Amino acid sequence: MGKLQKDLKKQRPSDSPEHEAVLNLFRTSNRIELRFARLFGQHGLTTSQYNILRILRGEGKPLPCLEIAERTVVKVPGITGLIDRLEEADLVRRQRSVEDRRVVNVEITEPGSQLLASLDAPLLKLQQQVLGHLSPAEIAELNRLLEKARQGGVE
Questions:
Q1: What is the pTM of this model?
Q2: What is the pLDDT of residue 115?
Q3: Contact 74, 18 (CB under 8 A)
Q4: Are residues 28 and 60 in the same domain?
Q5: CA distances in angstroms from 116 to 7, 10, 13, 129, 136, listed in the order given
Q6: Are 112 and 50 members of one domain?
Q7: Nearest Cα to Cα of residue 51 among 10, 7, 112
């Protein structure tokens, strides 16, 4: 009996190695997401809001809402609502494009940048807690395998 089968208290093994791998991915992803959501929540953010701020800080200039939506790690249906809440918290600012009035650009504010900066060290610490037991070679292999798995029709 495999570890996942024991953890899930399954009576019988998975139907296929692919099934077991998908269950392992779901379980691992869920455990990691919960830990990061807890950290972001302590700073008044959701994981999706953090993701938007991270994108804007990394770009270093305002981006159109649709561009932000395309760059998110986890696809979210309500990008406008997320940006609304970030704007209400003074973490981002919207501005209409001068070239095309239909386009709304979003930029991170100084308070948004400061909030992200305050998360940098705790985030690094949590990443090390979650994956620090893996060697650099194992991390590289994990990344390679996850990227390869996404090539198999995962959009």
A1: 0.84
A2: 98
A3: no
A4: no
A5: 35, 41, 43, 19, 26
A6: yes
A7: 112
The range of the structural domain enclosing residue 83 comes to: 46-119
If DSSP states are collapsed to H, E and C, what string results for the chain? CCHHHHHCCCCCCCCCHHHHHHHHHHHHHHHHHHHHHHHHHHCCCCHHHHHHHHHHHHHCCCEEHHHHHHHCCCCCCCHHHHHHHHHHCCCEEEEECCCCCCCEEEEECHHHHHHHHHHHHHHHHHHHHHHCCCCHHHHHHHHHHHHHHHCCCCC
Q: Do residues 87 and 74 share a domain?
A: yes
If 0-12 CB within 10 Å is exposed, 13-18 middle and 19+ buried, where does residue 108 land? buried
Q: Is residue 149 part of a domain?
A: no
Residues 15 and 67 in one domain: no
- The distance from CA 149 to its chain's CA centroid, rounded to whole angstroms, is 18
| pLDDT score for 155 | 60
Indicate whether 63 and 108 sit together in one domain.
Answer: yes
- pLDDT for 55 equals 96
- Total structural domains within the chain: 2
Does a structural domain hold residue 126? Answer: no
Higher pLDDT, 8 or 123: 123
